[in-house]
Structures are given as structure tokens and as C-alpha cells.
Design goal:
Radius of gyration: 26 Å
Strand order of the largest sheet: 3-2-4-5-1-6-11-10-9
Oligomer: single chain
Number of strands: 11
Distance between the termini: 120 Å
Largest sheet: 9 strands, mixed
Shape: globular
Helix content: 40-55%
Structural class: alpha/beta
Order of helices and strands: HEHHHHEHEHEHEEHEEHHEHHHEEH
Length: 472
């Protein structure tokens, strides 16, 4: 009887163990699958290729002045305004102009001209991207193109698929109207697709249509874009293939998007409109920096916990209790008290203009060394819209700043109003001179003062108001 009781007890124990162990094993298997799936959801950048136009498209001081002066809608006050803007913009002598502007056709752009400008950028960068990575266009699973101000039919993605004879099952996305922050938005689309599609290759093309959108009127808020925007763009190859991890340049750690479209002031601060004379252009108002500050503030609320270590966050919270509350509408004050250098080594700021770079620099307490890549990209290539970030990144790489394990914070702003930021981790020591190869040795220059002031500074002379210029 006692022996039977012992056997029964053992049977009960085994049943209890089975009841508990099977669910536990099931949970462990699920967790392992989840962890393995997460490994396949990583987003790696294999290569990026920036566009560099031909020498005949360079926009130096004299050429810039001749383009400005042939606009008969402008008076002496408009010339003074343009002079002050050009001199203080931070843009140098070697940026590139749209071909139709240099040829004097900016007031009558054709569809053929528009497509020619965009296709030159797309095909040049894609040819080099495929050649340098050894990846065939037929291997691409996902294609995303962002061009804000040109949306033809067939789409730009369709034109790329046709030229490179890509596969019939390629997933293509054509983004328009997204502004200067569209590049990270396009990468976010790829990142989300990677979560549900294994072993995929994606191409992102970021550029802008400048020539057909050149402003020919006299509204000061719309003339700003002519002073700042230049021809440029970039194509990128991304993957979530673990087998290609060792060849990757960067790994995407996190990406945060913020959209203030519901705020009327932010929505209207950067917008394409027609002036009173019917000239179409891009209007940049004085409210832009306020919109940038508000969107940056909202973005950092989500981004900061993902980037900074716990001790840095606790230190910030404690210090904030004794610090006077800052105005979130002032860009320079947005990041007051935050020490981003505890979680990031490099800062890749959208080269939208000197005011934006200065504002973000003061906001995050950055040094001139930190801001140098953005300032030099603006000086050498101008504001190339969505493609601008990659010229900044290229400068860092050409200067051999990027070492394995380093983290890069990318900061971008765009119409809408949007603030899209992300953090990349450097996978290998990088030193490719890329698009900067022919000039990196001369950067940073001793002076970034625009020579325009030396030749055309007379416009600021009060007596110039009485001067009648011969436009011919």
C-alpha cells in the first residue's frame, strides 16, 4: 500500500512538472523567435552616393549677380535685401545652379527641362551606387524616391524601374511635398517594411526639383529660396540582411518623426504659393525658426530617452527643478540642460541655412567642431533640400572622424512643419572622401565671407537709391 502511494506521488509530481514545463518551454521558444525576428529587423546602410554637378553649373559671385540683375521685377530695395541675404547665408562660390537658370530660362521652364534635371541626379548617383556596392538593380526589393516639387506621370520611381529593368514585384513608393526632412521619412518607410520582410534590399533616392521652381517675382519672403537652394541629391542602399552586416557603413539605432501640421502658424511658415503678380515660389516666413523650435522640442521628448543614458536623464531632471523654465518657442533654448554628448559623438545637422545651424548648435550646446560639417556642407554645396544631410555626413567621413561604434545624431526640418531625427551607429572605421574628394584638403577655409560683398557692396550705400541701373 505504501509503495503504491509513493508511485502515485511520483506520477503526480511528473504531471505537475509537465503542466508547468511545457508552457514555460513554449514561452521560451516564442521569446527566442521574437529575438531572432528582431535581429532581422535591423536597418543597415550599405552605401550612399551624393550628386556632384559638372563644373559648368557652378554659381560663383559674378554669375549669381547676373542672374539677380536680369530680373526686371526687382528694384534697389530688393537688391539690397538679396545682397544682405547672400552675404549672411554661409554659402560659398562653388555651389551648383539648375541648368535652366544659368541659360536664362527660369521664367519658362518646360517639363522636359524639369525631368532632365532630376534624371541627371537620380541616374548619376544610382549608377555609382550599383557600381560601388556590386549590387544589381534586379536584386532591389524596395524603392523609395522623394522629390517634393515634381510629381510626373509615370512617377519618378517608374522611370527608375524602367531604366534599370528592375523586377516586376518591386515595392515602389513616390513621395512628394515632404520638404527638406523627406530623406529620413523615406528611410522610416524602409525601416517599417524591413520589420515584416526578411532579407530585403532597398534603395532610397532623395533630391529636389530646383530649376522649375525658381522664383521670378519680388516678394522678399519668396526670394530667400533662390539665395539658399542649390542642385544636389543622394541615393542610398539599405538592407536588413544579417549576412551583409559586416560590410555595412551604419546601423539605424532609432528614428523619431514629428509633424506640426495642425498648428496653422507652423503649417504656413514654409509653403509654396503664388504672389500677387502670379509668380509661383516658396515662401519662408519669420515664423520658421519658431516652428523649428516647437517641432524640435516635441521630437526630443521622444528621442532623448532613446539616446541618453539613465544617469544623464536623472541629472537633467534634477537640474531642471532648479533651472528657470525655458521658452520652447526659441530654437536656441530647446535643449537647455541636456548633455547630448553622453549618448552621441557626432551631430549631422540639416544645412538649411546659417540661422538653423546656429540655432541648433546653441540649443544643444555644441562646439564649432561639432557644427563644422554642417557649415562646410552649406558653404560648398548650399541647401540641397532633402539631400543635404548626406553631404554633411560625407564631410565627416572625408575628414576621417567616423570610427567604429560612434553614434551620429541626424537632425532635419521640413515643410509641414516637420522635424525628423535619427541616430546611426558607425559599423566600421570610415575614411572615403566621396563627393568631397577634390576639395576636402582645403576645408575648412580660413574665411567663409562671401566675396559678393567686395564687388557689390555699393548697393548698401544710401546714395544707391538714386542710381539707375542699366539691366542690359
Amino acid at each position: 500500500m505504501e509503495h503504491t502511494s509513493i508511485l502515485s506521488s511520483h506520477v503526480h509530481m511528473e504531471l505537475l512538472l509537465a503542466i508547468f514545463l511545457f508552457p514555460l518551454a513554449y514561452v521560451i521558444i516564442l521569446l527566442c523567435k521574437k529575438l531572432l525576428a528582431l535581429r532581422d529587423q535591423n536597418c543597415y546602410m550599405m552605401h550612399y552616393e551624393c550628386f556632384k554637378a559638372s563644373e559648368d553649373l557652378k554659381l560663383n559671385t559674378d554669375t549669381c549677380a547676373s542672374i539677380v540683375m536680369r530680373n526686371k521685377n526687382l528694384g534697389i530695395e530688393e537688391y539690397k535685401f538679396l545682397l544682405q541675404t547672400i552675404v549672411s547665408s554661409g554659402i560659398g562660390e562653388d555651389t551648383y545652379s539648375p541648368r535652366i537658370v544659368l541659360s536664362g530660362q527660369e521664367d519658362t521652364p518646360s517639363l522636359k527641362d524639369s525631368l532632365s534635371e532630376i534624371e541627371e541626379i537620380m541616374y548619376d548617383t544610382l549608377d555609382k551606387l550599383f557600381a560601388k556596392t556590386g549590387v544589381s538593380p534586379s536584386e532591389i526589393d524596395i524603392l523609395v524616391v522623394n522629390v517634393s516639387l515634381l510629381s510626373p506621370s509615370p512617377s519618378l520611381t517608374a522611370r527608375i524601374v524602367n531604366r534599370y529593368k528592375m523586377r516586376e514585384d518591386i515595392k515602389s513608393y513616390n513621395l512628394s511635398g515632404m520638404g527638406c526632412s523627406a530623406s529620413l521619412l523615406a528611410i522610416d518607410i524602409v525601416r517599417n517594411i524591413f520589420k515584416v520582410r526578411k532579407n530585403a534590399l532597398a534603395v532610397v533616392v532623395s533630391t529636389e526639383s530646383m530649376g522649375p521652381n525658381w522664383y521670378c517675382g519680388r516678394e522678399k519672403s519668396m526670394m530667400l529660396s533662390n539665395c539658399l537652394f542649390r542642385v544636389g541629391g543622394c541615393s542610398m542602399l539599405l538592407t536588413n540582411k544579417r549576412a551583409m552586416k559586416h560590410r555595412a557603413l551604419f546601423k539605424l539605432n532609432c528614428l523619431v518623426r514629428t509633424h506640426l501640421g495642425s498648428n496653422d502658424e507652423a503649417y504656413n511658415c514654409c509653403i509654396q504659393i503664388e504672389d500677387s503678380l502670379g509668380f509661383r515660389g516658396f515662401c519662408l516666413t519669420k515664423k520658421l525658426t519658431k516652428a523649428a523650435a516647437l517641432s524640435f522640442t516635441e521630437n526630443l521628448k521622444v528621442l532623448v530617452p532613446k539616446v541618453l543614458p539613465l544617469w544623464a536623464l536623472l541629472r537633467y531632471v534634477i537640474a531642471s527643478r532648479y533651472r528657470k523654465k525655458t521658452d520652447s518657442r526659441v530654437l536656441e533654448l530647446v535643449g537647455a540642460g541636456l548633455n547630448f554628448k553622453t549618448g552621441v559623438e557626432h551631430f549631422c545637422i540639416h544645412p538649411g541655412g546659417r540661422a538653423v545651424i546656429d540655432g541648433v548648435g546653441k540649443s544643444l550646446g555644441l562646439t564649432e567642431y561639432d557644427l563644422e560639417p554642417a557649415r562646410m556642407a552649406l558653404h560648398r554645396f548650399g541647401n540641397t533640400s532633402a539631400g543635404g544631410l548626406w553631404y554633411v555626413l560625407g564631410y565627416m567621413e572625408a575628414k576621417k572622424r567616423l570610427k567604429k561604434g560612434d553614434r551620429i545624431l541626424m537632425i532635419s526640418f521640413g515643410a509641414g512643419f516637420k522635424c525628423n531625427n535619427c541616430v546611426w551607429q558607425v559599423m566600421n572605421d570610415l575614411e572615403d572622401a566621396n563627393v568631397w574628394e577634390d576639395c576636402i584638403a582645403s576645408y575648412p577655409p580660413k574665411s567663409v565671407v562671401n566675396p559678393f560683398i567686395e564687388k557689390y557692396g555699393w548697393i548698401n550705400d544710401p546714395s544707391a537709391s538714386f542710381v539707375k541701373l542699366d539691366w542690359n
